[in-house]
Every structure is written in C-alpha cells, then in structure tokens.
Amino acid sequence: MNALQEEALEEMKAAIYEWFEEQEKRKDVEGAVRRTTLQVGIFNDIVLDYRPGRTSVGSSDFRRNASGRKSMKASPFTQEEVLHEVQPRLTSIVREKLDKLHTSALIDYRFTLKGRFATADGPVRLTVFDIIYEEKKRQLLERVESYIEQKLEKGAYPTKPLETFFLTRHLLDPYLFNEPDVGRTIAIFDRIQALNKERAQALREHRSDIIRALTHWTEEVFLPRHYDVTLSEYKTNENGIKPDKALKHMDEPNQPIDLLLYGAVMILRYEPSYSKAKGMTFLELARQLGSGKAERMLKEGSDTFAREDIHLRDELTECKANDVFSIITVVIRKEEAGAYERAISFILSLLRKGFPKSYKIKLKSSVREALPIKGLAKSDTHRFFANALAYSELYPLLEEYAREAMEEFVWYEDTEGEKSVMPGSYAVFGLGLTDERYFPLVETYMALVDEEHQLVQDKFTAVFAETHGITERSMPALIACLRCSHDSLKLRIQPELESEDKLSLLVQHVEALPNYEAERVLYPILGKAEKLAVLARKAQEPRKGLLLRLLKAAEQA
Fold it and tell me: What is the pLDDT of residue 232?
C-alpha cells in the first residue's frame, strides 16, 4: 500500500477501535442481557462506512444509505484493492478485538462486520468479517427450547413482548436453524397470541414482533433463494423469479412458503391500512412460484374462517367475505330492518373472529341514503350504514358493532386522505346525531381518533354542535370532539354563549382540562386568546368574570 492508502486504513482502524472502546465503557450491557434468557449478547451486526475523512462504525441496517455525509476527498482505493488488500487487514483488526471480548455479554453468538467503501470506481459493499461462537450458540439454543417448553407449551400466563421480540427472530434465524420447523413455528406464533389475547395492547406488540420477524425472513432469506431482488430507482424491491426456482411440493403441509403465507395473512389482518400492500405482494410472489394455496387465497380468502362464517344467504340478504382483500359483499334482497340486522350481525361476528377491521363493503341495494355530513366518502360502506340507520330498532346493534369495530390507527379500506375514517365511524356519527343516549359512544370514539391522520371528525363536530347545541348532556361529547379537532374547524355556537348558564357550563368543562388542551378546545368556538381578551374587556359582570376564567385557561396552554 502507498502512503495515502496506509493513512486511509489507519482511519478505518481508528473508527473500529473507537467503536469497541465505546461499547466496553457501557455499564448497562450485563443488565440488558439479563432482561431475558433469550439473549446471550448485544451486538451481532455492525457496519463500517468508509468515506475519506468521514469514516464511521455503528450498528445499522447494511442497506441503509448514509445520506448527507459525503466526503470531499477522493478515495485512494480501487474496488479490487478493497477486496484483496483492505478486507484482509480489517479482518485481522476485528479478530484481534474479538479474541478479548467474545465471551462477554457485549458480543452475541454471531458477530458480523459489514462494510461500505467509497472507491475510485464506485462504492463497494461486502461482509468484512463473520464468525459464529459455537458455545454461545449452543447455550442460546438450549434457552430457546427451554423457554418454548416452559413458558409457551406448558405455560398458562401472558408472556412479555420483549421475549417475543427475541424468540421470533431466533426461530427464523438461518444461522441458528438451517431450516425453520414450519409447523412448530406457526404453532408457537399462534400460542403466543392465544396466551396474550386478553391484553389488547400487549397483543398488538406481540403480533407486531411476529410480523416483523416474518417480514424480515421473507425478504432476507426466502425470497432471495427464489427471486433476483433488485432495488428500483423508487427505493422499492423488484423481484424477478430465478430460472428453475418454482417450488415443488409447496402445497404439502409445513413447507417454508407457509411461513410467507402466514406472514401475509398477519399483515392483512392486523397491520395498518398503509401496510396492506406488502401482504398482497407476498401472496402474489407466492402465486408466481406456483403456490396453489396462494392462488386460492387471492380468490377466496385465507382459509382462516369456516365456510359458514364467511357466507350467509337467505331470503333477506346475502353476505360474502374475503379477508385477503378485506371485502365484505352485501346484497340486500328486501329493504327492511331484518335484512340490515342480519348483515350487521354477520359483520360483527366476523370482526370478533379476527376479520380485518379495515375492511370495505361492496353493497347492492336499491336505497341510497347518506349521513347529513359534508365531506364523507361516497362509498358503499358509508351508504350501508346510512341505510341501516333508518331503522331505530337497529340502534343498539349498531352501537355494539361500533364499539367492536373502533380501533386506533385503522381506517376503512375504501377511504383515503382527507376522507379516511376509523372503522365504526359511520355508525357513531349517525347515532351521535340522532339520540343523546349515544353521546358516551361519541366520547369513546373521539378518544381513539388519530387526529394527525383523520380530519372528518371536524365535519361531524360542526353538525353535532349545530344539532344538539350546548347542554349538560351534550357538553362532554362536544368537548371530546374538540379535543381532537383542527385549526380549520369553526363552530357557530357563540350566540348560545350569550346565556350565562351555558357560558358557565363551558367554563366548568374547560377548566377541568389539562392546560395544553384548553386553548385547542376554545379556538373553534371563540377564536384566538387575543380575541377572547377583547370580548372579556368589553363584557359586564358576571359574564366578564367567566370570560376571564376561559382566558386564564387558554393562556396557561
């Protein structure tokens, strides 16, 4: 190597040493490993990013671009020199450090150093060093087996999400298990969900970890075996099937492709709407490989539900459901309450059995009702519930449906952008506008609304305020609506606040709010704090005092 190259190598060596020294100084390593038996070390994958004068080492995704850290210096290496001269030198440097550290909790059973190198003829990415510590691997395998037996197969209590985080990755780690035991792995994932089914938030975390592990295995292990995977200019993967890689015997039980299909269904059933495309992509890729099961799933659904659960037909209505496409087809044969009652009951039963809440309805009906709220999507789902709301005897069933359907960060499949609505929205809006008995339902709904990604609650709030005004019964629901409103909302209820009783009622509710929400609630009613100050200055007692109390609550925000 010439002098410039030796200098560059010293820069890489210094970055590697600095990373190891920083980790050795950590005082939380032993504690981090002791959090769960399913971990024997912390670090297993680090990346050296060589850019002359800006070299760094860190734990990160090998594929991730280190954008914004461009070097002003030219690299002194060619690609060939990196492969044949730099890599062996770096391997020796890393091996030297690991010889002293590999038995500590700092290093996992497998340790990999990957590299991104700027060169004179383009970037080079390669694995610089990779090693498996067999004793740590044996220890980890024993811990995995013990955990499965004691906590899952014999266990009867909820488990910890952190344990699922590690277990799911271990079971699909090709360096721990050459090939996953497909049937047992799926049974374990089902068991985790069954043990945690009574704890909704924790169950979401467990499912998220299962899905992430399956997605990673699909994209990093399974698909590269059968597809040539390239990154398009839009930063998405493009997959071209490799010659002679269509699978044989794939429709026999417990084949690796079953894990891909299991993961696809998990994504479609439990992930947010914006993630559904990945699940559909997995199914389509499986179909291209020749999977008859994937073909059937795309046409008929996932086989998760019994035939009687997804198909209803009688003299009043016919309903069919496909959980892969999240579609429920409803044909109303006779326009009467009984037909809608059966359809709603059909949907409610499906949701309770795990059908995706972000579904959409494909409706065949001669009636075209709509809620009296401008800005809602003109969809079949909207029309179905608007039609059903014409029958007051269905209100209790509609409330039951709405409480089951509502879920944060989930939206009906046939809404998007400014018209996105959480499942249950149409039933809640219709009931809330019709009968004060359903004001508590409105409050429950608004507590779940993700106002960063949903706007239509403002449209409902304006109509709600106009319909019900300010009363002791309506005020809690109105406040709940305003707590998730946007600056564009303006309510026309100021004339009502000329009444000291109603103004006093507003004051009581605003003063009970956390400080940061008071201004948000008042803005759609009375405008900015400055305007409120002007109103207070011009008012006479006792109205003046009430307005000053509102101003104080707003200014505290």
Answer: 57
Quote the tokens at residue 145: 């087996």
SS3 for 122?
coil
* Cα distances (angstroms) measured from residue 333 to each of 338, 344, 386, 393, 426: 11, 15, 17, 19, 22
Instruction: Kindly report the length of the chain.
Output: 557
Q: How many CB atoms lie within 10 A of CB 522?
A: 23
pTM (2 decimals)?
0.75
Please answer whether residues 422 and 410 qualify as being in contact, where contact means their C-beta atoms are separated by less than 8 angstroms: yes
pLDDT of 63 above 60: no
3-class secondary structure, 539: coil
- Total Cβ atoms within 10 A of residue 552: 14
Query: How distant, in Å, are the alpha carbons of 201, 357, 412, 423 from that of 408?
Result: 11, 11, 12, 9
In contact, 459 and 373? CB cutoff 8 Å: yes
Per-residue pLDDT, 374: 94
Quick count: other Cβ atoms within 10 Å of Cβ 9?
A: 19
Backbone conformation region of residue 312, classed left if phi is above 0, alpha if psi is from -120 to 50, else beta? beta
Distance CA(415)–CA(190), nearest Å, equals: 31
Q: Give the SS3 label for residue 542.
A: coil
Lowest mean pLDDT among 204-208, 237-241, 516-520: 237-241
Q: Which amino acid is at 194?
A: A
| Residue 352: burial class (beta carbons within 10 Å; 0-12, 13-18, 19+) | exposed
Which tokens is 168 given? 């799911």
Q: What is the SS3 assignment for 199?
A: coil
Residue 165 to residue 186: CA distance in whole angstroms: 15
The alpha carbon torsion through 152, 154, 156, 158 (nearest 10 deg) reads: -20
CB 130 within 8 Å of CB 62: no
Cβ(542)–Cβ(499) below 8 Å: no
Strands 107-117 and 360-364: unpaired
What integer is the mean pLDDT of 468-488? 95
pLDDT at residue 557, as a whole number: 40
What is the tens place of the pLDDT at every residue in 73-95? Answer: 889 999 999 999 999 999 999 99
Using CA atoms, how far apart are residues 370 and 351, in angstroms rounded to an integer? 24
Tokens 């700092």 correspond to what residue?
106
Q: Which amino acid is located at 46 in the chain?
A: I
* Alpha carbon distance 4, 176 (integer Å): 41
- Helix (H/G/I), strand (E/B), else coil: 172: coil
Return the amino acid letter for 36.
Answer: T
CA atoms of 401 and 343, how far apart (whole Å): 11
Q: Name the token pair of 198.
A: 């009574």
Question: Among 119, 112, 40, 42, which Cα is nearest to 79's?
Answer: 119
pLDDT in tens, 427-471: 999 999 999 999 999 999 999 999 998 999 999 999 999 999 999
